[in-house]
UniProtKB/TrEMBL annotation:
Membrane topology: Multi-pass membrane protein
Name of this chain's protein: FUSC family protein
Domain Integral membrane bound transporter: 378-498
InterPro entries on file: Integral_membrane_YCCS_YHJK (IPR010020), Memb_transporter_dom (IPR049453), YccS_N (IPR032692)
Family indicated by similarity: Belongs to the YccS/YhfK family.
Length: 694
């Protein structure tokens, strides 16, 4: 029972965050200096935003860099204010100065918002405390945070990666069960496919996260780490077999009508899904796995495949289900693979050179945030607020990458703040003793962190009440901050929303064409690997994952684009159909990858003909996406004659998959021509060539 409590992801995270915040408060409460304890508890928030709670092979190096940036940000802001530099100019300078971190790498890029939050906290203390004392608070707070996190992850070994692996197995279980529960609905892709696409997106997002976590592990050869990496490789094999295409509606319907295949397939899928859930719990709660086999279930599926040899669906399901069962029983990968390389970080001087360009995405993000913060500071000064730190803090908290993410965060933040202020006003009227208020703050802090990752809006209620308690304890003026805080939150949310609309907006709908082009490029590279007779197994696995990730990037962009305002819905509807066929194509690529890995190869002449046909179609799809002009490529599809020798089922499966890939590519080219005509006709859409969008 204790394992389920202490290793539970939300409980473990809430306990960690609560302890790192409250232990300094407890210490200084015992020293009769509660105000300093509350000020010191602000630093862990900066460290969390900066990603300093992420286990890393260079953990202490990143901690030193982060702490140095916090001290520089604090000291620089105070000196700029002493030199009578207007606060809006100060915020713009700091944002542009720290924005270069995003050019180095995404992980280092998280230090910029953390340094800006440090500056905002410093603004609230400037004039009340000496410059050196404020800087020392951030330095000491960072050291405390780093030591606590290091000790925490020494006690809870590999907890972040275990949580991600467990979540991956759960998502694979849900995806697999949902896919085969919709078995008879494959005749209507509009209903059956969207939920599967969402499941596939979540799976690929978690896989990308685990790749990042693996390359931050300091010692990959340690037995504990090797076991986790082996489990990850098993999950990659499972993902390959789960995401294969079964889009054969006529054959599925025929087999269902002729036999009890539907019940048998769904029963097998349920058994596999339940086992995946068990493995997810075993990984998360440090439990040994129990023996597993599903020979009796597979025998029923094999019987159906034998009774209906002319129908490929039974054999298809038996092949992939038996491979999945083999993986679940042995819990070892089917083959050794080389994991995808991690994106390296740029050297500082090279990143600085790249950053000093109007085309730099990091510079645009920093400029957008800087101008927004400057506007917030300017509005605060106009309203005679000498320290409009809560407007600036609201801007930092709700500003996200993308319009839809910012809009959702604004809704949660504003509603949570309003409810929290109303609840806090009622509670403050009760006038509890200080000790009781501290206990209530501890409980609220733990409960808020317990739900913050799943329901941010409700967590904001607890954080708002805690902030009011803090002000009440420090200055006995919590009631005086109710209305100003509400007004500041509204102003900050409005400014963040306006900046996402008008200051270099990252419209995903404008990037759909580029993402589609990149996806086609990865499909072509993977097909070349498949038809290469001497292809290395590890290289084939690497290109397959790139295919899945490229499609996931495209699908994510489409989901975000559907939420953006002011764009032609007909264009997005056409692109949604394009992405649907892209998903079918990826599933076929997953399927033929498993066939190619089983040492099956086509006749060299036939393989070359198939490859040529696929490359021709991919290239004309890319040209249709790239050029704005009349389509003169009503291409003559190369006619590929299948071989007469079809004794082996693998040859039939390989050829059928390739023929469907060719059919999907043809449809995607037609959709590309129609979608481009429906595009919006304003702004960056007037550019005629795809490469001009970069």
């Amino acid at each position: 029972m204790w394992r389920r409590v202490i290793y539970h992801p939300e409980v473990n995270y809430a306990l960690r965050q609560t302890l790192v915040l409250c232990l300094p408060v407890l210490l200084f409460w015992l020293l009769d200096d509660l105000a300093t304890g509350f000020l010191l508890s602000l630093v862990p928030a900066c460290c969390s935003i900066g990603g300093l709670d992420t286990p890393h092979k260079h953990f202490f190096k990143r901690l030193a860099i982060g702490g140095g940036l916090f001290v520089i940000s604090s000291v620089l802001l105070q000196f700029l204010l002493l030199w009578s530099v207007p606060l809006p100019i100060c915020m713009l300078i700091l944002t542009l100065l720290f924005g270069v971190t995003a050019e180095i790498s995404p992980l280092y890029g998280r230090l910029m918002p953390a340094a800006l939050v440090t500056a905002i906290f410093t603004l609230s203390m400037a004039g009340n405390l000496p410059v050196w004392r404020v800087a020392m608070l951030f330095a000491i707070g960072t050291v405390w945070y780093g030591l606590f996190i290091h000790l925490w992850f020494r006690l809870w070994q590999e907890q972040p990666m275990r949580e991600s692996l467990s979540l991956l197995f759960r998502q694979l279980a849900c995806y697999f069960e949902e896919k085969y529960s919709l078995l008879t609905q494959h005749t209507d892709p509009e209903k059956a496919l969207p939920p599967l696409l969402l499941r596939q997106q979540k799976v690929m997002d978690i896989i990308s996260l685990i790749y990042q976590q693996i390359y931050m592990i300091p010692n990959l050869k340690h037995p504990r780490h090797r076991r986790l990496i082996q489990s990850f490789q098993v999950a990659l094999d499972l993902q390959e077999h789960i995401t294969v295409s079964l889009h054969q509606p006529a054959e599925v319907q025929k087999l269902v009508e002729q036999s009890q295949a539907e019940a048998v397939i769904r029963h097998n899928a349920k058994i596999i899904s339940q086992r995946l859930q068990v493995l997810a719990d075993n990984i998360l709660y440090h439990r040994r796995s129990t023996p597993f086999n599903m020979d009796s279930e597979l025998s029923a599926l094999a019987k159906i495949a034998r009774q209906h040899p002319d129908n490929p669906v039974g054999t298809f399901c038996y092949y992939h289900f038996s491979r999945i069962a083999h993986l679940l029983s042995r819990q070892k990968p089917l083959y050794n693979r080389t994991l995808m390389p991690m994106q390296s970080r740029l050297p500082f001087l090279q990143a600085l050179k790249s950053y000093c360009s109007l085309k730099s995405a990091a510079f645009k993000n920093a400029a957008r945030l800087g101008f927004t913060l400057a506007a917030g500071a300017g509005i605060g000064l106009t309203l005679n607020l000498p320290k409009p730190y809560w407007i600036l803090m609201t801007i930092m908290v709700v500003s996200q990458n993308g319009y839809n993410a910012t809009r959702i965060r604004i809704q949660h933040r504003s509603l949570g703040t309003v409810i929290g202020i109303l609840a806090g006003a009622a509670i403050l009227h009760l006038y509890y003793s200080q000790n009781l208020m501290l206990i209530l703050m501890l409980v609220l802090t733990f409960c808020s962190y317990l739900i913050v990752r799943k329901n941010y809006g409700i967590a904001v209620i607890g954080f708002t009440i805690t902030a009011l308690y803090t002000l009440q304890i420090i200055s006995n003026s919590g009631m005086n901050y109710l209305l100003p805080r509400l007004i500041d939150t509204v102003i900050g949310c409005m400014l963040a929303f306006a900046s996402s609309l008008w200051l270099w907006p990252q419209w995903q709908s404008a990037l759909l064409r580029k993402n589609a082009h990149n996806a086609l490029e990865t499909y072509q590279q993977h097909l070349r690997q498949i038809f290469n007779m001497g292809t290395d197994v590890a290289e084939l696995a690497y290109t397959r994952m790139r295919v899945n990730q490229a499609h996931n990037t495209l699908f994510t962009a489409l989901n975000q684009a559907m939420q953006e305002p002011g764009f032609n819905t007909r264009y997005l509807a056409d692109m949604r159909l394009w992405v649907t066929h892209s998903q079918f194509l990826v599933e076929h690529l997953n399927a033929i990858t498993t066939i190619a890995r089983d040492q099956y190869v086509l006749v060299p002449t036939l393989a070359q003909e198939y490859l040529n046909a696929c490359e021709v179609l991919i290239q004309i799809c890319q040209q249709r996406l790239e050029y704005d002009g009349p389509s003169g490529d009503t291409s003559i599809l190369p006619i590929v004659e299948s071989g007469d020798d079809k004794d082996e089922l693998s040859e039939i499966s390989m050829e059928k998959h390739i023929e469907r890939i060719l059919a999907h590519l043809t449809t995607m080219h037609t959709i590309s021509s129609l979608a481009w005509q429906q595009r919006p006709h304003h702004g960056m859409w007037l550019k005629r060539r795809l490469r001009e969008e970069g």
